[in-house]
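Fill-in record for Thiolase N-terminal domain-containing protein.
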Amino acid sequence: MQRIQQLVSHLTPTPTGLSALERKSPDDVVITMAIRSPLCKAKKGGFKDTRTDELMTEMFKKAISYSKVDPAVVEDITVGVVLAVGGLYAARQAALTAGFPDAVPISIVNRFCSSGLMAVTDIANKIKAGQIQVGLAIGVESMSQDPDAGVPPASAEIQAHVAAQDCAMPMGWTSENVASDFNVTRERMDEFAARSFQRAEHADKTGIFDGEIVPFTAFVRNPKTGEQSTRVITKDDGIRYGTTKEGLLKVRPAFPQWGKGHTTGGNASQVTDGAAAVMLMKRSKAEELGLNILGKHITTAVAGCPPRIMGIGPLYAIPKVLAMAA
């Protein structure tokens, strides 16, 4: 009988492409929860008075509530965070405050804009390696609380290296470099930005975001008296209703000193406060716990590029991840 099964297995074509990705295995890494806070404008939005550790604590509380998983079942937590001073201390304190047992370990990862994604990758890889069965990935950032400490003075050797010095340049400079090097016109940038705002407006009005946004408690602090209160935020507050390309074309350049001055406050990414959480585990564990499976994590690819045009990083990473998943 075993010999027959081996022959049948040998004759059965091995799935490739999409069929292989969709094939289910008990060892698959699956996502059973994916939630986020509303995304709010830094310095003036709903979370402007809410500290990073407070965002973390609230996100951990929501993860416990929405995951339908006993927090003691979670075997590791990774938090993606960039700006927080003492980020690991804050993450550990927030997890304990929210209700995670002290037996649940935690770490942080910083890969700038992709830090939250790297937290997901870190947990997924640990599950694939058999180190854990259940893990939680969180991404959090308070741009309002950015200490703005800047980059410390570099060594003489680094200062003499052009590409190394480029690492410390502002993102507005790199944006203008990309626009100039790749001939991205102001009109194309504003057209893309307008379409993005229009899609966000449609999603907000029709409830497309309702399944991912969870109500979030924010702090409100009076700078004069120090008095503190709370309120609940339920919606993104950075969507600009009625945005058009024609309207964006009227916005003045934000960085006229660099390149062609195509980047503006209308077509640049919003400076944002917010948080998100993803629960991952082996498929067999999810089925054992009776959890709904939202998706399957396949793989992640990272790639480097010249710091002066760091915005094109996905151009290199996407082909790599598609090749790995083929």
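KEY FINDING: Residues 163 and 307 are 7 Å apart (CA to CA).
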